[in-house]
Amino acid sequence: MDSRANYSYVAQVNICKTSEFFKYNITYPVLKLYDKYVYHDMYDREIIININNEICEDVMEFKNSVKKQAIAYKKLYTEKLSKSDEDYVKYQYEVYINNEVTYDRNNIISIVMTKYEFTGGAHGMTYLDAYNYNLLTGDRLTLKDMFKPGVDYEEIVNNFIKEEINNKPENYFKGDEGFKGISENQPFYIDEDGIVIYFGLYEIAPYYIGIPKFKLKFDEFNKYLNYN
After folding, report:
1. In the listed set 124, 141, 158, which residue is the last one of a domain according to the structure?
2. What is the per-residue pLDDT across 172-189, written as a single tens digit (0 to 9) for each?
3. What distance in Å separates the CA atoms of residue 19 and residue 138, rounded to the nearest whole number?
4. Both 90 and 192 in a single domain?
5. pTM greater than the 0.70 cutoff
6. How many beta carbons lie within 10 A of that of residue 177, not counting itself?
């Protein structure tokens, strides 16, 4: 891999608002070109613009989805629940989003977005969204891209995860609800030590376990990998 530093850096944008039935506090990343590269022929500003648009659109879609639910709940509470003889709990719907740049060199960037929503009930839900890009091409990297051509990455990853689960089987679902193998679009992110495969809440483990993560460390899987 090219060992040069990336030609862009990451700034942060924060938006927040609180109302009676809905509040949000969102911090999302915005990639920017270093000044010396703004008019450099080698670097395409459209790539940065497209990445920023994709991330921003995802963030706003998540926020607006919960906002729509909050509006519907406000109508229900105002017109019906608040006038009932029963003592209904009044909820304030919530959205929190933050992010972390976990890898940013060799013209590869990996950003992990943590999204939380509360829409009533016993607890909210947390989601991870990873954005892994080749900054020279603008391509969003898949897990397959991380491995050398011809490598059976699915077998390698599946065997690794199965071994990790077998070390603590009490933490994971079993049988039909358990781990059956990675998906074609398996979520992952990159950090300084390796590639982190992750799963959603309830996907392969109970809620109290949190978001299951499995790291393929560079120093152990280097011979199979394209990027390290």
Report:
1. 141
2. 999 989 999 999 999 999
3. 38
4. no
5. yes
6. 12
